[in-house]
Design brief:
The protein is of the alpha+beta class. It is built from six helices and 13 strands. Helices cover about 55% and strands about 20% of the residues. The strands form three sheets. It has a six-stranded antiparallel β-barrel with strand order 1-9-12-11-10-13. A four-stranded antiparallel beta sheet has the order 2-8-7-4, with no helix packed on it. The protein has a three-stranded antiparallel beta sheet with strand order 3-5-6. Strand 10 (about 405-410) and strand 11 (about 410-425) form a beta hairpin. Helix 3 runs antiparallel to helix 4 (about 235-310). It is rod-shaped and about 240 Å long.
Length: about 475
């Protein structure tokens, strides 16, 4: 009974021992064989064909495709703000071109001559009418300005001639004024001299000997006649009559003499009064003469100055007319040119593409008015696609504008494109850092119809090449394994 139990225990220990060995063996096998096999890098190989030709070595940099965009613009400043009351149309927008149909969309490829826009015929007619009216108004304004200019030239010419004549006669007029005033003064002076001479003559005649003797004789005869009348006897009538007649005669003669004396004195007084009046006139004339001489002098100086600047005055008078005429001509030229440009632009009412490429912008939509200048369409042309890359300072010194490069696009692995260096910027893009590089722009050559903006491109700059053809494999056929 006991022997049997020991035998079972032994078997149990053996089983446990075997299980432990199996576990240890499994762990060791996993560690030594399975785990290394699981961690081993799987290498995938691709076939590449060796090629025969000239072997080239270069520098490869990555960049992205950029479009060179060309814009077709609408640049007519119609300025059609005139309201045509005759049409009874209150819609001012009709003064502008209205888009009836748009034939293109962004992302579409177009060719030169493809239709882009079509405009409504009513808007075309409206704009054409407005521009024609503006040209007619400008022509009328020019005619009016020309007339004003012609009249202005004639008026200014006459004024110039009058000024020059007045200037030439200014000195003569001044001298004539002085002479006339002097003559008036001299005449009055002579008149005073004549009056003084007459007074002197009268006074002299009143005090000369003959005059005194005549006065004494008449006085004496008058006094004698008085005495004879008084002495005449009353008995003798004849004596009284004779004495009375002699008295009357002597008295009349004496009184006449005295009357003439008084008249002479009055004449002297009258002439003295005239002298005073003339002296006042002379004083006034002298004052007037000073005033007239001053005015004549000012007139002379003014006319002389006007004559010296007559040409400038003439030119200045015409400046305004010339300016108006010039402006009117310019406005007519502008109106004519605008109408001509409009006719050239509108053609048959449809706008066509001026080049070929990929549409990147459509400036106007259907039913929209072209109220301002703007872009009709923008398109990327196939001959203006570029790739910009940064090249290190060690490599950029081996390059120059016009060098050929090779381009490979990620989207087209088995194809290559040719390119030409378009520009090399001399300003570093990473100044102050450990790595200095310079932007280089590549112009893509050939058919670029399958390229799009933003595509990644590897640009290879050829730095050296073999002189003879050799067998070579592409660089991408070489792989690295464990650092080798």
């Amino acid at each position: 009974m006991s022997k049997k139990k020991m035998s079972k225990k032994k078997k149990l220990h053996i089983l446990l021992w075997i299980a432990a060995v199996l576990v240890i063996a499994g762990a060791a096998g996993y560690t030594l064989f399975i785990k290394p096999m699981m961690e081993q890098e799987e290498i995938v190989y691709r076939e590449n064909t060796a090629q025969y030709g000239i072997l080239q070595n270069g520098v490869t940099e990555s960049g992205t495709v950029e479009f060179g965009v060309t814009s077709q613009v609408y640049d007519l400043d119609l300025s059609t703000e005139d309201d045509d009351d005759d049409d009874g149309d209150d819609d001012e927008e009709e003064d502008y071109l209205k888009v009836e149909e748009v034939y293109v969309a962004v992302g579409q490829r177009i060719s030169e001559g493809d239709p882009v826009y079509k405009f409504t015929q009513s808007s075309i007619d409206k704009v054409r009418k407005t521009l024609t009216y503006a040209k007619t108004e400008a022509q009328i304004a020019l005619n009016e300005a020309q007339t004003q200019y012609d009249v202005g030239v004639l008026t200014a010419g006459l004024s110039y001639d009058e000024t020059m004549l007045a200037s030439s006669l200014a000195e003569q007029s001044y001298n004539n004024t002085i002479a006339q005033l002097s003559n008036d003064l001299a005449a009055k002076t002579l008149e005073i001299e004549q009056l003084l001479a007459d007074i002197y003559d009268i006074q002299c005649s009143l005090v000369d000997d003959d005059y005194r003797d005549q006065r004494d004789d008449l006085k004496e005869a008058y006094e004698d006649a008085i005495e004879d009348v008084e002495d005449a006897s009353e008995e003798y009538v004849t004596n009284r009559i004779t004495a009375a007649q002699a008295f009357r005669t002597a008295k009349e003669s004496y009184e006449n003499f005295l009357e003439q004396f008084d008249e002479s004195n009055e004449e002297i007084q009258d002439k003295i009064d005239q002298v005073y009046e003339i002296q006042e006139e002379i004083l006034y004339t002298q004052q007037l003469m000073q005033k007239d001489i001053l005015e004549a002098s000012q007139t002379y100086e003014s006319d002389t100055l006007s004559g010296s600047i007559a040409q400038n005055t003439y030119d200045s008078s015409l400046t305004g007319y010339e300016s108006s005429l010039k402006k009117a001509k310019e406005e007519l030229d502008d109106a004519s040119q605008l109408l001509s440009d409009f006719e050239e632009f509108i053609g048959d009412g449809t706008i066509y593409a001026q080049g070929s490429g990929l549409i990147t912008e459509v400036g106007f939509s259907e039913d929209e008015y072209l109220e301002t200048a703007g872009v009709l369409i923008s398109y990327a042309t196939s001959d203006a696609m570029t790739v910009s890359v940064d090249v290190s300072e060690e490599d950029v010194v081996t390059m120059k504008v016009g060098d050929s490069v090779t381009l490979a696009f990620t989207a087209y692995e088995d194809e290559t494109y040719e390119g030409i260096i378009q520009s090399i910027t001399t300003t570093a893009t990473s100044r102050g850092t450990a790595t200095v590089s310079y932007p280089v722009v590549i112009s893509i050559q050939g058919d670029t119809s399958r390229l799009y903006e933003g595509m990644t491109a590897d640009v290879t700059f050829i730095t050296e090449a073999t002189n003879a053809e050799v067998i070579y494999v592409p660089r991408k056929a070489i792989v690295e394994e464990n650092g080798k």
